[in-house]
Structure formats: C-alpha cells, structure tokens
Design goal:
Strand order of the largest sheet: 2-1-3-4-5
Strand content: 15-25%
Shape: elongated
Number of helices: 8
Order of helices and strands: EHEHEHEHEHEEEEHEHHEE
Number of strands: 12
CATH topology of the largest domain: Rossmann fold
Largest sheet: 5 strands, parallel
Structural class: alpha/beta
CATH class of the largest domain: Alpha Beta
Distance between the termini: 41 Å
CATH architecture of the largest domain: 3-Layer(aba) Sandwich
Oligomer: single chain
Number of domains: 2
Helix content: 40-55%
Radius of gyration: 18 Å
CATH superfamily of the largest domain: Response regulator
C-alpha cells in the first residue's frame, strides 16, 4: 500500500516515513499543498495523510481538490483541535481527523480502518424501499436517481441497509464504520449523518434515516 504524507515539518515527515515504512507501507512525501497535488496525480496513492497548516495551499484546500479528482482516503493529521477545525476538515472531503500530538498505534489503527473500507468487496445488492446500494460498483440510487457518496458516506449507508428497522447505537456505528471509538464528545456521526441525509433527501424525498434521541439512528419508513 502506498501512502502520501503531506506536511511542512521535516521532523514529522521523517518520523512518519520511518514508522510507516517499518510497518510495510511505501511512503512518498510532499512539503506543501502544490507539491502534494502533483504527487497525488503522479503516484495515485492508496491513502493521503495531510497536515492543515502549510505554506501556500493549506490542507483544507488540498483536501477539496483531491476529493474533486478521486476517492482516495484522506486522513487529516494536524495540531488544530477545535470542533470547528474538525468539521472544516471533514467538510473539505477528509475521511478522518487526528490531532497532534498523537499515539502512533492509534494512527496505524486509523490507517488500517481507512484502507480496509476502501478495498473492493464481492458484489452485493442491498435495497430498502426505493433506495438501493451495490457493494461492487459502489453505485447508490434512490428511485431512478444516482446518488454520489464519499467512501465514508457509502459505508455509513451500507451499515443501515444491512440492519433495516434496527436502532443502531452511536458506539455501534463508530465501531462498524470507523473501526474504533472517537469518544463521547465527538460529533463525527452527526456531521456525516447531515451529509448523507442531504443527499438522500435531495429534491424533497422523504426521510429514511431517523434519529432516536439519546440512542442513535434507525432506517425505517
């Protein structure tokens, strides 16, 4: 697996390059946003680790441009730690967000989770009412309309389609979709539910994923 590490701090880059190479990953690096976009086009990495605060193009803009061009998993790795910062990173197209300083074992776990979700699986068609999802082609449709989802949104919808009419607790969603627990203070699920609902309900379509206050969410009529 090939990982592109984007950070303007040489010490961070060196640390990540050594540690990830030891784990068996092939590592490419970029020191700014412009170089990162050029490298991504050239090598087509399996995952991008991206800092936010960089000279020239910052990580938010790099993430937006990467997401416009591909579905490569993006992990934000940054010292910016507020909820607003995390939401901005996720809104830009990032799939995950880890704050510096970080535990290297946690970084590895998040990398494995992102790479696992990005791998193609044997095809299967899941349906609920007028909503359908194909796990092989990763095509999602509501009625006759194709819905474009990010990798994270797709995984979230797939989880609900595999458990229709079942209330899914927040910790279950964290475990099944992200592979670990963000912690009780995180609003990552709410952020992605907002994204997913806005796409599923485009054009005035009725809501299918409902909030169960204080518990989680359920896919139902």
């Amino acid at each position: 697996m090939r990982i592109l590490v984007v950070d303007d701090d040489p010490e961070i880059v060196s640390f990540l390059k050594r540690g990830l190479a030891y784990e068996g990953y092939t590592i490419d690096t970029a020191g700014d946003g412009t170089e990162a976009l050029a490298k991504a086009r050239e090598i087509e990495p399996d995952l991008v680790i991206l800092d936010i605060m960089m000279p020239g193009l910052d990580g938010i803009e790099v993430s937006r441009r990467l997401r416009q061009a591909s579905e490569v998993p993006i992990l934000m790795l940054t010292a910016k730690a507020t909820v607003a910062d995390r939401v901005a990173g996720l809104d830009s197209g990032a799939d995950d967000y880890l704050v510096k300083p970080f535990a290297f074992d946690e970084l590895l776990a998040r990398i494995r989770a992102l790479l696992r979700r990005s791998q193609p699986a044997e095809g299967e068609a899941l349906r609920f009412m007028d909503l359908s999802l194909n796990t092989s082609t990763r095509e999602v449709m509501r009625g006759d309309d194709i819905i474009q989802l990010t990798a994270q949104e797709f995984d979230l919808l797939e989880l609900f389609l595999r458990h229709p009419r079942q209330v899914l607790k927040r910790d279950t969603i964290y475990e099944k979709v992200w592979g670990y627990d963000f912690g009780g203070e995180s609003n990552v699920i709410e952020v992605y539910m907002r994204y997913l609902r806005s796409k599923l309900e485009a054009g005035g379509q009725p809501r299918l994923i409902h909030t169960v206050r204080g518990v989680g969410y359920v896919l139902k009529e």
